[in-house]
Please model this.
Amino acid sequence: MQTGVYSISKKHVPKSGMTISTNAKIGNKSMVHHFSLGSGTDISSEAYENPVIYIGAYGTGLFNVGTNGNCKLQMNSQNIIFLHEGTFCGIKSVEEKGLIYTEILFEKGSKMNGILKANEVFDLKNLIEYEEGSIVNIDLASGEGMKFMILAFDDGCMLSEHKAPGDALFFALEGKATIIYEGKSYKIREGENFRFEKNGLHSVKAEGKFKMALLLSLE
Model:
């Protein structure tokens, strides 16, 4: 797995008439995928036996939720949609430039934070507020194999150097920060991503106010 700063939206550019699914290779299970839907493409309605979270990266998508698709949700970049297991959902790209999103399947019985209502659209960075001189953390979803959280750093706040139990994927939601990974410095800003391997030594320091989301495998 390659580490460093990159952009999901630039790495998975939509191709006209194609739907492309790419295993994100987070942890040992194939439960996280990046989807790229070209102009005029869609995914037919289907239901998973797992709770699922979708995170928008690029473009606009229409999610037709429910057996009859009677709940219609519009998802844009940094939007998040949570669906309970067994919920039917069809997805369509509604713009010429296509649609890119990340799909996260959690195991049955995973705990979902009450602020994340099913069958609704939320802007990730609006789910958390800053606290003066502090780092705020909210676990949005957690199970035996995976955790998804959001964090808000006040200006200059820093997560000290540490190791994580599994592979991880950062989503920079607002502002800028510096990540030190295995002794090398990386600048990251809103709209960019960063990934690191299990046991990778890292720290995060806000350059001004900074918000991020983190998908962490638990191995």
About this structure: The mean pLDDT is 94. The radius of gyration is 17 Å.
